[in-house]
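call fold(seq) -> tokens
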Amino acid sequence: MIIVLKSRAPQKKTDELIDWLRSKQLDVHVSVGHYQTVLGLVGDTSRVDTDLLTGLEIVEQVQRISEPFKMANRKFHEEDTCVSAGPFRIGAGSFAFIAGPCSVENEEQIISVAKAVKEAGATALRGGAFKPRTSPYDFQGLRADGIELLLEAKKETGLPIVTEIMNAAHLPLFEQVDVIQVGARNMQNFELLKELGRVNKPILLKRGLANTLKELLMSAEYILAGGNEQVILCERGIRTFETYTRNTLDLSAVPVLKELSHLPVVIDPSHATGVSRYVPSMALAAAAAGADGLMLEVHGDPAHALCDGPQSLTPEQFASLTKQVNKVRKALSEG
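ret:
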């Protein structure tokens, strides 16, 4: 249930209402917008008399939310959410280019890529330190050493860093990481999501390769319900019967998620297609669809990358793509 308060509701009466609602064993989440304040109620709202609430002088509207995701719901938070970490911003009009190699390989590699993508317009550096791989014999990442190298790249370039966590036990290693990524395989690792709900930093949540948008939003709800309101949704392709691409990029996820939720939406065309020559067209389509950002794999030498070289752009290709994407976004804003 949500309660929309009148624009000039006295703070004292607002506090009294919140206290009364909490006495009903309800969690009350307050969302203050430019024009209105919304109270989101989580719990058994059947004990709340909607007619009584509607009759209060400070209440504009009372509405029950039928969807199981409450805090991620746009009805709860009408305005777009802007997620930020230092200079990094995404959502509510801010567009993000998150770029870098699939995995951190060595100091020279990550710093050279970081410098190149920053010059080309990247707003954050991505790089895998812990790598979930299908085969136990594939490169698993440099782990803690990989995070240290990402931090060195951050010192060199000033770019905020985005990297994936696989286990809540690793959280102490992520204290200086700007944005924590939850990979597709962990989208429904609910114990991990609960722990990330207690973390005071942005979480980039990837859609599972066989999960619905509702399930993605419910996973986001775990993080939001824990108190962390900085969640970024990421569409990275879903598994279908198609074999010419690594996955099938569901671009319809952008307008659907934007309609259902206030959270920013990122598209990862690299993992979605698995083929670097398809990445630019899908990135442009994502921008045209209204995505809030792109997550792109960029490697200085894709042919010799230790992980996902075939889907990685070169720095030159990334630089060309950022210019094209910005042209699409400009055309949309002018239209």
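The chain is about 35% helix and 20% strand.
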